[in-house]
Amino acid sequence: ERQKSNRQAVVSTQSTGAEDCFFVLDILCYKSHHVVDSEAEFRFYWGATKLSEDVDVGERSEGNRYPIIWLPHFPCSELQLPDEDISSLDGYLFYHKEGHYTAGTTPLVGWIKPDMLEGLIAKASSAVKLGS
């Protein structure tokens, strides 16, 4: 029993009916170590590292019908996005890298659809040029 309780984690997830799995967006606690007051950049690195240590959580099995998959996180700065395959994305979730975890609505997290991204970058680029 002690070993099982030591593996507990509190995560923020999104599930999809089509994939029958849980996608982890953020981590709040792992093995009794609370990280809600840590910056997002640290939580993402630490959470991905810790969940990767439990290799069985990401695999479907008789004892694990719903795999838990850590969504990849990429730094985004100077109006540039990573060169990753985005064909299967339904949107981008932006976090302020220094933001602490906040339940509910916060201005430090935003979601946009892929077709909105190009226009947003163009507007931001224009605003940066005007401000120079």
Report on the architecture of this protein.
With 132 residues, this protein is of the alpha+beta class. The chain has 3 helices and 6 strands; from the N terminus they run αβββαβββα. Strands 1, 2, 3 and 4 form a 4-stranded mixed sheet that branches.
Helices and strands in order, then pairings?
Layout: H1 2-5, E1 9-16, E2 21-30, E3 33-34, H2 40-53, E4 68-70, E5 92-95, E6 109-112, H3 114-131
Parallel strand pairs: 2-4
Antiparallel strand pairs: 1-2, 2-3, 5-6
Class inferred from helices and paired strands: alpha+beta
Indicate the mean pLDDT.
79
The helical percent reads: 25-40%
Residue ranges: pLDDT <50 for 5 or more in a row? none
**Succession of helices and strands:** HEEEHEEEH
Q: How many angstroms does the end-to-end distance come to?
A: 61 Å
SS field, number of helical segments: 3
Number of β-strand runs: 6
Sheet-strand content, in percent, reads 15-25%
Report the biggest beta sheet as strand number plus sense, adding barrel if it closes: 4 strands, mixed
Radius of gyration: 17 Å
Approximate shape: globular
Brief overview:
The protein is of the alpha+beta class. The chain has helices spanning 2-5, 40-53, 114-131, and strands at 9-16, 21-30, 33-34, 68-70, 92-95, 109-112.
Defining key terms:
132 residues; alpha+beta; two-stranded antiparallel ribbon; 27% helix; 6 strands; 3 helices; 4-stranded mixed β-sheet
